[in-house]
Structure formats: structure tokens, C-alpha cells
Amino acid sequence: MASLQGKWTKLDQKGSGPGARSSHAIALVGHEVYAFGGEFTPRVPVDNKLHVFDLEALTWSVADATGDVPPPRVGVSMAAVGSTIYVFGGRDAAHKELNELYSFDTCTNKWTLLSSADAGPPHRSYHSTAADERHVYIFGGCGVEGRLNDLWAFDVVAQKWIKYPAAGDGCKGRGGPGLVVAQGKIWVVYGFAGMEVDDVHCFDPVHGQWAQVETSGEKPTARSVFSTVGIGKYIIIYGGEVDPSDLGHLGAGKFIGEVYSLDTDTLMWTRWDDGPDLETHPGPRGWCAFAGGWKDGKQGLLVYGGNSPSNDRLDDIYFFTPSLDGIET
């Protein structure tokens, strides 16, 4: 089988941007990237501005936001459905886990608090979020009493939460997993469950059933806090932490910079040839903000910032474009 090819492009940033950070989140709406939250110093939230990067002009701005502006936080997640961005959870400056769900209307620049307290998922940070045309999915993360393995969906049309069956003992509670919607199922990939794990689980929302899937091929090493995107039937992952620091969140663990994909039909992993020796390659990192989207008519993965092997926060932006010509998606 021929190797899968992909290309990284480092994007220029004109003018001053929000700066280096990790444990933040981004979402793409059209040709604009919305960035929120994160830290420069470990566990200290940077700000609560909504920074906007124009993929065409390559310039940063700050949204003139109104409404229920969320307080600063780290370990937050975001997802976009149409022109609306949804922000959930995270951890505040007092290291308190949060569970508010906010929406941000990119047409009106207005924040709205949609749920809090006992409505919706329990408090958490370093969870994962994915979305389809109608739902925003929340899985796992670090809860008040430990790591979680629960799955929720917010129906953006009905404006209500759906609680799905928990994943069960076979899928340990975890932080920093990959979460992707592919072929009508929700996939949980890897994560940190007291140790880096390399299992894959999927949930069928139609039948309400979880299954652990056995994968084959060029299987990636166990990891967490990596970047993830779903393109067609493929789950594509990049980077992540393969060995945590002895200092925990205060230090940098061992990061990796490879790209792999999981074919959700064959359940086979493949490592991509993505030019690891080129200057345009982002290299090893984790705790990045990432999102799937389109640039110059091509679908791919956008990665912004993160933490480096030297424990320095990063401020660069890369776009990964997989060459899927002739590959069924």
C-alpha cells in the first residue's frame, strides 16, 4: 500500500496576536479562527478575550463581544455548529472545575450563557468536544472527584442536554482524549487515565451502545492531549504527550510530532508521510488548540500554539492538508 501523504503549511501572522499559550481552544467559522482561553504560565488563565484570526488576511483582531462573557479559564473546549460557537467547561484561576455552556453568535458577536449548575454535564476540564450538524458532544475530562468517562450531547436546535449511557469500566475515565464524529458514531481515541492509554471506543447514538474496537496497522503509541480531526471516514491525529512530566501539569512531558489516521471502516492505523524534516513541520508538541476546517478549498487540521518539549508555550499556527486523492473518505 502506498504511503499516505500530507502537507503542513506554517501560516504567517501579520501584526500582533494573542501570543503564546496552551490549554486553550479554537473553532473555525468560514475563514475565521476563534481562539479562547489558555495559559502562558501553568495553571494561570491568560484572558477571556475572543481572539479572531483571518485565514485569508492572516491578521488577528479581538471580537467586540457583548452579553454573558465567560471568565478566563484553561482546559476549555470549543466547537462550531454553523455560525455559532459553543464553549464548555474548563478550570478557572482558583483551579476550580467549571461546567457552564456558552454560545457565541459570530454574526452578532454576542455571548449567551446556555446552561450551568445542575443542568448538563458535571464540572470538568481537559475534556473533549466534537460536533455534527445538530449536536455538540462532550466526553470525559478531569472532574471534581477524578477523571470521567461520560458522554453528553447538547442539541442546538432543541436547546437541551442529552445524557448518553456512560462508557463503562472498559473505557476508563480520562483526560485529553480524541473525540470525533465519523460515520454516525462518536469515537473516543486514547487519552490519559492515570497513564497514557491506546484504546479506541465508539458509541452508536441510534442504538445507545458502546463498543471497544480492536485496531491494527501502524498503531500509534499511547498518548493524550493531541490534536484530532475527522475527515470522512478517517480520524486523523497529530502530536500529543506520550510520557507525562514528573512535575505534572507544571512541567513538560515527552511530546511527539507524528501524524496518524484511523480508517473507521477497516479499523486500521496508518502513519502519514508529512515532511517531518521540513521547516514547515510543527514538530513535537501537545496541549494545542486545534480544529478541523477548510483553507484554500482544502479540508484539513488547524493547530495553534501548545506546549513544547522545553516547557515553553508556543504561538505559531499550522494547517495540515491530507492528500486524499484516490482515497475513499
UniProtKB/TrEMBL annotation:
Molecular function via GO: enzyme regulator activity; lyase activity
Statement: the UniProt record of this protein carries the keyword ATP-binding: no
Transmembrane segment boundaries: none
Family matches, as Pfam families: Kelch_KLHDC2_KLHL20_DRC7
Cofactor: Fe(2+)
Taxonomic superkingdom: Eukaryota
Signal sequence region: none
KW Iron (keyword) present: yes
GO cellular component: cytosol; nucleus
Designated name of the protein: Kelch repeat-containing protein
Species assigned in the record: Dimocarpus longan
